[in-house]
Target: fumarylacetoacetase
Amino acid sequence: MPLLKSWVESANSAETGFPLNNLPCGVFDDGAGARLGVAIGDMILDVAAAARAGLLPHGAALGGRDWNAFMALGPAAWAELRAALTDLLSEGSEVRAQVVLVPMAEARLLMPITVAEYTDFYAGRTHAFNVGSIFRGPENALPPNWLSIPIGYNGRASSVVVSGTDVRRPWGQLKAPEADLPVFAPCRRFDMELEIGAIVGQPSEGPVSVAEADDMIFGYVLLNDWSARDIQAWEYQPLGPFQAKATATTIGPWIVTKAALEPFRTSTPERERELLPHLQEPGPMIYDVELEVALAPEGGAEATISRTNFRELYYSAAQQLAHHTTSGCPMRVGDLLGSGTISGTAKDSRGSLLELSWSGSEPIELPGGETRSFLEDGDTLTLRGAARGDGYRVGFGDCTGTVIAALKDPYAR
Amino acid sequence: MPLLKSWVESANSAETGFPLNNLPCGVFDDGAGARLGVAIGDMILDVAAAARAGLLPHGAALGGRDWNAFMALGPAAWAELRAALTDLLSEGSEVRAQVVLVPMAEARLLMPITVAEYTDFYAGRTHAFNVGSIFRGPENALPPNWLSIPIGYNGRASSVVVSGTDVRRPWGQLKAPEADLPVFAPCRRFDMELEIGAIVGQPSEGPVSVAEADDMIFGYVLLNDWSARDIQAWEYQPLGPFQAKATATTIGPWIVTKAALEPFRTSTPERERELLPHLQEPGPMIYDVELEVALAPEGGAEATISRTNFRELYYSAAQQLAHHTTSGCPMRVGDLLGSGTISGTAKDSRGSLLELSWSGSEPIELPGGETRSFLEDGDTLTLRGAARGDGYRVGFGDCTGTVIAALKDPYAR
Model:
């Protein structure tokens, strides 16, 4: 598919992440209140205003402060809105005079959805191998169930924040390897994880197939699963990570819809072990999306510290969602599924500092001469992602967060 | 404190769980719609009607279908409502003619709260030792962190159901110890867990102390954390239980408020290892509540299979909640914290079939001659709990659920 031309000139550039082919869904506030918007070039289409003007179908579900009510309407409504938005913004649009656009530079981007529940997976083969090698040695790196199950754990929805939110270094119980007992102190090994989040737009009761799961997904966002490695190391046996992952998870402001990613569908890797039938994919269900992580020390220049691709994942979001329902677990509109860290096999394609610095034994060098094993206060992390079409890019928008210092005394009032 | 006398005669019996001293909060529907109610003897006070009649403070928060809006008002409002309800229902009440009572036998009891997020803990010393002994042997039974951290994991709020809801045996990946690979099949080791759930009635940002955490708790419910042991065994490494715990968690219909339990406050056990200061309790924070589990095979007589006490727990809900916030994790009104399985040291005081049958090696005998290692289809489980005062009981109401057969083909449509 070529670039679709819009009357919004900035949307026709080969550099924008937001051509007419994309139309990602967000929530913005330009001072006149939070409302739904769709990115087009360097502008935001005021979806609420367009709905009030009768320019869009399903207007009754487009007047709120999140996309949940619209997502609940289902795939037919999703397709109808996309078609109407495409008409409205395409070169030959006859109603362009009625369309309200807000410059993106003048808007604050807010949480695009209300997160119902948040689940984080562990679906990157290389990431799982790297982490397993660091903690248990390469011979025991991959747990026995890894090639059979898209392993996941429930996270904390209340801790999900939108890009641009500062992230405070947490306190927690830390036990040094040589110590007998833990101390309660600020985290010393604070990390990021490059992930993509799938947004569940339809509910389910009982088990769903992989094909049905794919139909339930509304779209995808960038996701940074901030991780306190020292808290995790002490707490995670036997019931999994808990406070190590509960400080914050940052999502990107723009939901790239499944429809926009359709031209970039590709297959998950060859199976090393045949999957049980209920987890087999009836078609390509991962996407070719280039990803990168940039780190900027406080007052310093930004450096790209990792480049990888969404298609590195062994399990697709549809497989994860299908597994999530096997026990009968009900899924809800607004559920968020983190993909798990996306690492390639090359050293500079690893999706976490734990892997990039090999648990601190090989600190990475930044252009200014500083090194990093884990995050320092003042560091700003930015995740970026884009699928590359023929003369256009489908971008996810920056997903950023700055680490701020731990509280001096968490219990001072 | 002695029995408080009510003009509702059935509330003055030494046998009722719902004397004037209790006043637990629920939601009921007698055919005229779901609304808030408070149990008194064998009747339910129609809270919504009393609020409309101007008999109760904070009436604007008492007209919905759950207690969340009222809980959000905070401890002063909780105390004011309790005082007003006590006046309304006490022997000398001058407005009894205006009070609407509905016979409990004619009402269906519904979810008392909308669960924001659900966390399950592992705070029973004996339970953790038993489970650890079964899976890892007695020498490695208690994980190294257990005496320092109230270990918990995030569960799935969408799977929480109210007493009386049937629970369908789940499918899942099961790997027999002697097999190389798993199969996808109905769970064969389906279990229950006797717990008490704490209901968080106030939100927090940032870490809270144990004393602050105790102030945030609105009340307690019985909780049965249905558990698929064979699914759990295969899936839980390294990120904890997931689908094994996602089929259903049943809570009792009545929230026994912290105020009603106040006379029964007692201390958690002596510490085997001194806790870090942020987890130390400033006073007694567990409760003396007698608990029991009854099992009735389909068409058979009910037998009590376990008797224990809430005070067996090593960590109180206030300690669990304080730990939950250490990383900065925001807590919300309606969060539900499962205590973890409550087992005493005696064999007949174990809170799960896994422990009662020692993983199936010592099946328990039922009065009808049947034996049980794990739950069979048609089994009805009932949890009961009551604190015993001077001539009265503060009861939790039955928390029941019946196991129904697995789907024949989970993907048939």
Q: What stands out?
A: The radius of gyration of chain A is 21 Å. The mean pLDDT of chain A is 97. Chain A touches chain B through 63 residues (CB under 8 Å).
